[in-house]
Amino acid sequence: MAAHGGSWQLMAANLQADPRLASSQIPLYPKIHIAVAEPSAAMLVRHLSYFVTLARERHFARAAEASNVTQSTLSAALRKLEDDLQVALVVRNQRFVGLTVEGEHLLAWARQILIDYDSLREDLSGLRTGLKGTLRLGVIPAAMGAVGFLTTRFREAHPDACVEIRSLSSREIQKGLDGFEIEAGLTYLENEPLDRVRRVPLYHERYILAMRADHPLAAEAQVSWEQACGQRLVLLSEDMQNRRILDTLAAAFGLELRPTVVSNSFLGVCAHLREGGFVSIVPQTFRHLFGGTADLAMRDFAEPTPHQAVGLVLSERDPLPPMASALLRTTLGAPFAATVEAAERRPIP
C-alpha cells in the first residue's frame, strides 16, 4: 500500500511490541519474526472502517448494517485483519463482548489512518474542483450567538462546502477533536483550557442580564450582581462551563447563584425569559440575537466583571485535515472582536 505502507508495518510492530500485552490474559499469536503482507489500499481502508464501526456500535449486526454489508462479510473482513496483523482484536462468543488489549491499541491507529486517508482524498479533490464536503464544528452553547460570524466567512471563501454545527460542552469538544469526530471547536480558551490543540483567539465574552421589557429591573440603566442574584433565575446547568464561570464570578462578589430552572441549552433558557418573571445572565453576543426583540430587555452590570477569551480550537496535528486548514485560513486576521462589538452596539429596547 503506497500511501500507508509505513503506517501499516509500524502499526503491526507496535501491536506486537506493546508492553501492556505481556500481562494480558488474552491468548496471543506467537511473537515471531513476521513479514506483514500489505493489503491493497482499498481493502485496508475498508477493513479498518469495519473495525472502527464495530468498536462504535459494539454489536456485529448493527455494525454490519451501518457498513452496508452482511454480517458474514464484516466478520470475514475482521478475521482477515486479525490474520494480517497476527493478533486477536475482538473478544467473541455468540455475540460481541469487547475489544482485546490489542484491539484497543489498534483503534487509535485505525481512526488516525482513516482520517488521514479521507483528508488525502479531500485535499487532492480540492485541488481539482475546490473544497467540498462538510465542516463539522463543535460550539459551546454560550458561543452560539457568535458562530455565524465564523461560518459565514468560511462559506464565502468556500461556497461548495457545507457546515454542520454541533452544540457541545467544552469537554465534548475535546473528545470530538481527539476522536476525529469534529474538525474544530469554538470554546473558551483560558478557563478550563483544552489539551493538544492549537488556539486562535476571536473575542472576549462578558455578561449582561436579560429579562422581559416589563420587568422592574428593565427600568434601570445598569444592574448589580446582588440584584441579579435576588431574582428568579434561569441559567445553564452546571455541566456547562458557562455556568461554572458564572458561579465563580458570583462567588467573587460574595454571592451565590440559585437558579429556579436550569437547562443545558440556551434555547431552554431563553424560552423562560418571556414567562414567569425569569431573568438570566447571558453572554453579550445575545444582544446580537435578541436585541431587536421588543418584549425583551438586556442590561449591563454596574460592577467590572472579568472577561473570558473565546476562540477557535483545532487539533495540533500537522498537516491539518483540509476542512480544518481551510477554516483556519479564513479565520486568521479576521476582525472578529470588532464584528462582535459592532453587533453589540445595535440599538436595544
Q: Could you please describe the fold and organization of this structure?
A:
The protein has a five-stranded mixed beta sheet, with helices on both faces. It has a four-stranded mixed beta sheet with strand order 8-12-7-11. Strands 1-2 form a two-stranded antiparallel sheet. The protein has helices spanning 5-17, 41-57, 60-66, 71-85, 101-129, 147-157, 170-178, 225-229, 241-252, 266-273, 286-290, 322-331, 336-344; strands at residues 90-92, 96-99, 133-139, 161-167, 184-188, 197-205, 207-212, 222-223, 234-236, 261-263, 280-283, 296-301, 308-315. The chain folds into three domains: 5-123, Winged helix-like DNA-binding domain superfamily/Winged helix DNA-binding domain (Arc Repressor Mutant, subunit A, Orthogonal Bundle), CATH 1.10.10; 131-204 and 309-344, D-Maltodextrin-Binding Protein, domain 2; 207-306, D-Maltodextrin-Binding Protein, domain 2. Mean pLDDT is 84; it is low at 1-5 and 20-36. By secondary structure, it is of the alpha/beta class. Helix content is 43%, strand content 19%. The protein contains 13 helices and 13 strands.
Biggest sheet features = 5 strands, mixed
The whole-number mean of residue pLDDT values reads: 84
Strand content: 15-25%
In spatial order, strands of the major sheet run: 4-3-5-13-6
| Through-space gap between termini | 64 Å
Helix content percent band = 40-55%
Taken from the alpha-carbon principal axes, the silhouette is elongated
**Count of DSSP H/I helices:** 13
CATH architecture classification name of the largest domain: Orthogonal Bundle
CATH homologous superfamily title of the largest domain: Winged helix-like DNA-binding domain superfamily/Winged helix DNA-binding domain
CATH class of the largest domain: Mainly Alpha
The stretches of 5 or more residues where confidence is low (pLDDT under 50) are 1-5, 20-36
Oligomer: single chain
Q: What structural class do helix, strand and pairing data support?
A: alpha/beta
What is the count of distinct domains? 3
